[in-house]
Amino acid sequence: MATLPTSDRLLLGPGPSPVSARVMQALAAPARSHLDPDVLDLLDDVRGMLGRVFQAPDGNLSIAVSGTGTAAMDAAAMNLIEPGMTVLAIVTGYFGERLAQVFARSGAYVERLHVEWGRSVDPALVERALIDARFDVVAMVHGETSTGVRNPVEAIAPIVRRREALFVVDAVTSLGTIPVDVSAWDADIVYACGQKGLGAPPGLSPITVSPRARHASPTCHSYACDFDLLEAFWVRRQYHHTISSPLVYALHTALTELFEEGLEARWARHQAAHDALVAGLAGVGLELFADPPHRLISLNAVRIPPGLDEKAVRARLLTTHGIEIGAGLGPLAGRIWRIGLMGSGATLANVDRVVSALAEALGRKRPK
Ligand SMILES: Cc1ncc(COP(=O)(O)O)c(C=O)c1O
User: Fold this and answer.
1) What number of helices (H) and strands (E) belong to the chain?
2) Is there an atom of ligand 1 within 6 Å of 170 CB?
3) Which of 145, 150, 207, 329 best tests ligand 1's pocket when mutated (most atoms within 8 Å of CB)?
4) What is the mean pLDDT of residues 342-351?
5) Is the entire prediction scored with pTM above 0.90?
6) Beta partners for 149?
7) Preceding amide of 16 cis, omega within 30
8) Pocket flag, ligand 1, residue 68 (CB < 6 Å)
9) Residue pLDDT, tens place only, 127-155
10) 1 Cα: distance to centroid of ligand 1 (angstroms)
11) All structural domains of the chain with their residue ranges
12) pLDDT class for 165, splitting at 50, 70, 90?
């Protein structure tokens, strides 16, 4: 029989990120049902805090769907799409491609705007695509976790609005680590996850929906993620599904921690951790995959030196140093490692640990 883990692991992969002791303790608060007044009061707070972390306008529905980031992706597509609607999916990596596939499964006609992996999308290309054809929806990933690239959502948003398309943004690896400004973007659906920048365990995924998006399609083809039914539960307290109360405790606590720190201070902490990592890696002869203007500070894609047994390095980090980092996905497998510095994991002490561990595993000396 397998046993529960007893030793700590420093989670510096692409997610999940570390969960603070306070959030872990919240999971163990006394059990309540999903319709208990205590839980419903916590949900009210969570809605309010999610609206603030997304910087969403007042009229938006801001809730969390039960499930991980992929469930939130599904929720976006299933609620927006009527068969035959057209979607422009901006694909700059693995998760942009997943977004395209999710929309195609919902019955949309999906056209992909492909961008070389490792680069961000040029807003002029989006403008061109929207001049060449009419799309009902434009969907894109803000922080592309497979390549460590941040896409310029702020520059693309006004282009999409001018063309009167609905705008869907995946903020799974950006929310809580860099600014996500749903009001400024005037975006229609923006979703994230609990387990990265917010520092909660996986299982509840924040999503914010504009009134415009709520009217886009008369029927949602999923019961589980129907926004009207979810609103009836979250706002009017009618049973829809058995939300996990321990996960509600954890998300509530993680968001409380976030606002105790402050959004600006949190973004600055993530930037400082990223800067220290880049400098530390340079000291041991390692460099990032994405160019500086495109870099996603929360997820650092590191070029693997040629001729190295990269799996052995990751295994040494895990078994000798207790540190998890991620492998490359798809065409980047074997070419990059992915080091996430998110939520409570984004600290200078953690940067120091991972750089020292990499230096040891690679047999390189850190400069004094
Ligand atoms: C940008 C992005 N979107 C979506 C997902 C899917 O999220 P999940 O694994 O929580 O289902 C991920 C997961 O890493 C991601 O990085």
Assistant:
1) 13, 14
2) yes
3) 145
4) 98
5) yes
6) 144, 295
7) yes
8) yes
9) 999 999 999 999 999 999 999 999 999 99
10) 31
11) 10-16+262-362, 21-260
12) very high
